[in-house]
Amino acid sequence: MSGVLSDLAACIGFYTRLPVAALGAPAQDFARAQWAAPLAGALIGIAAGTVLLSGTWAELPPLVCALLAVAASVVLTGALHEDGLADTADGLGGGATRERKLEIMRDSRIGTYGVAALVFSILLRVAALAALAPGFAVAALIAAHMAGRAMIPHFLGSLPAARTDGLSANVGAVGERTAAIALAVAAVALLVLLGPMTTLVAATLLAAWFVTLKALAQRQLGGHTGDICGALEQGGEILVLLAAAAAFS
Question: What is the pTM of this model?
Fold first, then answer.
């Protein structure tokens, strides 16, 4: 149990800005702890869903409630994955060589591709949530945040690091068993929260997104980076919300 709590604390501490010292000591092996990534996502989804319900109880318009929920998730995570999405869009869209792409992705400044990616990411999430009844919106938020993070362990294990230093390189290789547990946790959650048909649609979209981004990362960068993982999460989150909106709006 102490190992489980340590793994959970490591993932919550990394994927959110929450203090997690009370849950146990940080995990010795952060790569091993990645099975708990979707559980950290569930916590973020619950928090964002609580904000959405609070707005609904205050009789705010659905669009405002959806925007507040997305804003809450950004604040809770410190815009970790939004930053990765923007850097990935700038690097893949603006660099002519592998070295230049990696250089752009490490630059703290944001370019046109990054701004456009962030705008569309926020707009798509807000629009999808606003189209759902509050109960469905909360379920979709939890499912989306779990699924988006559940893909990261498998992504880290299926590609080498593009750099010898950096965030994803420091994590190390994630084992197949760890990645499989993360995916299984998210799959069960999606089935419970969204039902079998919507889960099937979402899983198909997520698989296509995973394969596409993996091919881009391999061909253009030679492997994964922390920014690419952030883009993976953002795309996954958006696709699950869109699948839920198509099914339940």
Answer: 0.94
